[in-house]
Amino acid sequence: MKKLLAAASVLALCAGHAQANECTNPVQITWSTIAGFYTDAMNQFVASFEKENCAKVQVINTDNSQLYNKQVIEMVGQTGAYDVVTLETAEKAEFAANGFILPMTEFLAERPDLVEDVAPTLRSITVEYDGNIWGLPYYTYSAGMFIRQDLLDDPIEQAAFQERYGYPLARPETWEQHRDIAEFFTRKAGEKLKGQVLERDFYGVGLMAGPFPDIQDELSAQLWGMGSDWLTDEGVVPVDDVEKVLAHYVGLLKFAPPAALTVTYDGVMNQMRDGQIAMTHGFFLDQWPNAVKTEESVPGAVIAAIEAPGKRAYVGGFLLAVSSSSANPEMAMRFVAHIGGPEVQRQFADMGGATTLMSVLSDPVYETAERRPLNGEYKTLLQVFESMKGFSSNLFNTPFGAKIYNTMHIPLQSAAAGQITPRQAAEQLAADVAAICGGPCPIKR
Amino acid sequence: MANVLGVSHTSDMVVRSKAGMSDRTFSILLVAPALAVILVFAILPLVYALDVSFRFADLTRGGIREYVGLDNYRRVFSDSNFWTAGWITLKFTVVAVTLQMTLGVGIAFLLHGMTVGKGLVRSLIILPLATSAAVTGLFWRYLYDTQFGVLNWILGSFGLPEPNWLGDYTIALWSVVIFDVWQWTPFVALIALAGLQALPREPFEAAELDGASSWRVLRTLTFPLLKPVLFLVLVLRTIDCVRLYDAVAVLTRGGPGTSTETMTFYLYRTGLKLFRMDYASTMAIFFLYVMLVAAIFALTPLLKQFTDRAKEA
Q1: What is the C-alpha separation between A260 and A251, in angstroms, rounded?
Q2: Nearest C-alpha of chain A: how many angstroms from B32?
Q3: Which chain A residue's Cα is nearest to B252?
Q4: Is residue B91 part of a domain?
Q5: Are B123 and B27 contained in the same domain?
Q6: Considering B254, B287, B304, which residue would you say is the last residue of a domain?
Q7: Where does the pLDDT of residue A11 fall: very low under 50, low under 70, confident under 90, or very high at 90 and above?
Q8: Residue B101 in contact with residue B237, Cβ under 8 Å?
Q9: What CATH number should be reported for the domain holding residue B113?
Q10: Is residue B285 part of a domain?
């Protein structure tokens, strides 16, 4: 028996050695992705993939604002520079319709568990298009909102709110309540908040109204909440609906810090951690690890991640897809499956990443108090996905979605800044979209 | 004639025997690398852009496609965004260049009159030029921040209004102007200072002997003699301001709305966000044409002046 074991050990050693020798010429693949936490956290998982698959993955980090342009240029040129690309939700249809990425339907047919594990709402929005599966999402920036629960729970504030508005102070369930709360908590230095005199101005809401493609994410929550969309089924902008939500949004700006017109999500997080704002608008829940640090920086603060009013908010995730000009599509698809798979996603979650997999999001391990600083938004994410089950936006189902998404903030921000009226902005958006699509935008579900 | 030809032939032979090639060939070889660079990086792209401007070219809708005649050029004339961007560029250029020239020349005179520490000050004022606008622009974004910025902190300390420098569409463009003036005024100052130091002393000594007032010396001697240098700086700064991109990209991204969207930023948005290379090329060609005409008008007197001086010399 001992001899048998020894022989087996030698054989195993030899086999292992042989395997190591086999990997003298690793397959090279390149992953184009976003610079920052999203990618930094992935580096160790890239290493494990390389080890298991005899591959060499070159990670190319690009600033998020330039990623789309860079990837489109490489795809149009069929340069083969990128094997795996990272796409925003609105970019999926464009890349698929233009043949920039390969369908992974057949590849994933052998691993149905990988697709089935993706939150159903995200699956239909980020992965599926025109009857195919185009990759796997590895990170979700789906939105809810953050609010200072300690302010809502304060008896002095509750009484004052009840007296002023005639209903109890609580988490907002409608955008009108959200506006009332924003107005109520907007105070000047010298006034009191929770019975304490304020040393500087305090604002009811933090808004991402800067010159970035985030203002539309906030407005999506309201627009989708009223049963409308950025594009009708006929492929045109519903001007009246856009005007309505924009007018409401412009009304909110007087309850936001003046910096609202220059900031994006990180600016709002800074305002929250600095104790300047009571809540956000529809906001990316993946920012929970940042938002919850307010509890350390502002004495007595308690942060809650909740669903946005109307239970509609911007949903989406970063899709990993394989370039059609990839020299090693098979290896690239294995890489996508690796990063989007449960093993890596669980480790990503352990680091505080906003995973897209139901098996991880619903794992009770992440509901414990000690996991709260990193994964405290998971419960809300599950609620968001449940509330938005079956939801789809035409913005994500037109091949022009990326172009629209990347430029639509301009007229919206013009209205927010007061340069034009909400009506003019809505009409400008409709004209811009018609110009981009060359008429009504084609919609393909 | 034969003699002349003979001499010429002999001297040519001498040059050839020395260098192994004629002067003409040698001079062509010297400029060839520069010409090759210009050809590859300027002329060919220009010809290509001209070709694309007459086509339909949407990179995400089939790439470079059929010819559409003058459609793109017609669109330029009816595109309000293009003209708005042009107007913003013009406003920026006129104000920024005027301020830079005025302040730059003023600083140059001050430095010229300094007796101590001139070298140190000269080294210090060059610092804004030593870093790219992309980097310094980030610092300025923080300086301009409405809540945490130093500028508003200073204004607030004196009880003055604290403007929303980059968020208020009525002042955002002027905030970009201030940044550009901060960065490029030293350049004007240094060139003007070099011009001042190179002026001949004799006319000034003669004017002093004649008892001319300072103002008269300035008006009749200093500025006329400095004119070619100042004119050159003016042209350089104007060209640079007209094609402003980096400061806008870092500070405002064209916003709020489109209030700081300059011509080049609009070009970038059309070409690299919407991938309409046809229309972006058309605007670029149009822009180039306008710049070329303006440059010819501006540079002709200067070139004439240089030629006249060379002849006099």
Answers
A1: 13
A2: 30
A3: A211
A4: yes
A5: no
A6: B254
A7: very low
A8: yes
A9: 1.10.3720.10
A10: no
Residue A8 vs residue A122, higher pLDDT? A122
Q: Give the mean pLDDT of chain B.
A: 89
List the 270-309 stretch of A: residues with Cβ below 8 A of B.
Answer: 276
Find where tokens 């240098």 sit: B229
Nearest CA in chain B to A68: B273
Whether the predicted pLDDT of A17 surpasses 60: no
Q: List the structure tokens of A239.
A: 């001007």
| Domain co-membership, B106 together with B194 | yes
Sign of CA dihedral A14, A16, A19, A20: negative
Residue with tokens 């909440």: A225
DSSP assignment of A162-202 equals HHHHSS---S-SSHHHHHHHHHHH-B-TTSEETTEE-SS-B
Q: Is residue B109 domain-resident?
A: yes
Q: What are the structure tokens assigned to B158, written together?
A: 């004196």
In this complex, which of B61, B166, B259 lies closest to A419 when CB atoms are compared? B259
Give contacts of B256 with chain A, Cβ < 8 Å: 211, 261, 413-414, 416-417, 419
Dump pLDDT digits (tens) for A86-145: 999 999 999 999 999 999 999 999 999 999 999 999 999 999 999 999 999 999 999 999
Note whether A410 contacts B: Cβ–Cβ < 8 A: yes
Q: Tell me the residue range of the domain where B23 lies.
A: 18-49
Q: Give the closest of B59, B145, B256 to A419, CB-based.
A: B256
Contact (CB, 8 A) for B290 and B86: no
Segment B238-287, tens digit of pLDDT? 999 999 999 999 999 998 999 999 999 999 999 999 999 999 999 999 99
User: What are the structural domains of chain A?
Assistant: 20-140+315-381 (3.40.190.10), 143-312+408-437 (3.40.190.10)
Burial (Cβ within 10 Å: 0-12, 13-18, ≥19) of residue A401: buried
Asked whether the beta carbons of residue B60 and residue A72 sit closer than 8 angstroms, the reply is yes
Co-location of B94 and B34 in the same domain: no
For position B62, what pLDDT does the model report?
Answer: 81
B140 and B206 share a domain? yes
pLDDT at residue B55 in the model? 96
**Residue B39 sits in the same domain as residue B93:** no
Write down the pTM of the prediction: 0.87
User: Measured on CA atoms in the order B288, B290, B294, B296, is the torsion positive or negative?
Assistant: positive
Handedness of CA A175, A179, A182, A185 (dihedral sign): negative
Inter-chain residue contact B167 with A72, CB threshold 8 Å: no
Residues B111 and B209 in one domain: yes
Decide: helix, strand or coil at residue A315.
coil
A258 touches chain B (CB under 8 A): yes
Residue B102 — pLDDT band, cuts 50, 70, 90? very high
Using the Cβ of A236 and the Cβ atoms of chain B, whether some distance falls under 8 Å is answered with no
Same domain, B248 and B104: yes
In a domain, B284, yes or no: no
Question: Which of these, A132, A115, A104, lies nearest to A334 by C-alpha position?
Answer: A104
Length of chain A, in residues: 445
Q: Are residues B42 and B127 in the same domain?
A: no
Question: Of chain A residues 53-112, which have a CB less than 8 A from chain B?
Answer: 68-69, 72-73, 76, 94, 98
Q: Which residues contact B263 (CB under 8 A, 6 or more apart)?
A: B82, B85, B86, B88, B89, B242, B243, B283, B287
Overall number of domains in chain B: 2
Is residue A46 a contact partner of residue A59, using CB atoms and an 8 Å limit?
yes
Q: Where are the alpha helices (DSSP H) in B114-222?
A: 118-125, 127-130, 133-144, 150-157, 172-197, 202-209, 214-217
Domain boundary among B224, B239, B254: B254
pLDDT, tens only, B39-75: 999 999 999 999 999 999 998 888 889 999 999 999 9
Confidence of residue B18 (pLDDT cuts 50, 70, 90): low
Facing B256 at nearest CB: one of A399, A402, A417 = A417
Least Cα distance to A87 among A77, A79, A78, A74 occurs for A74
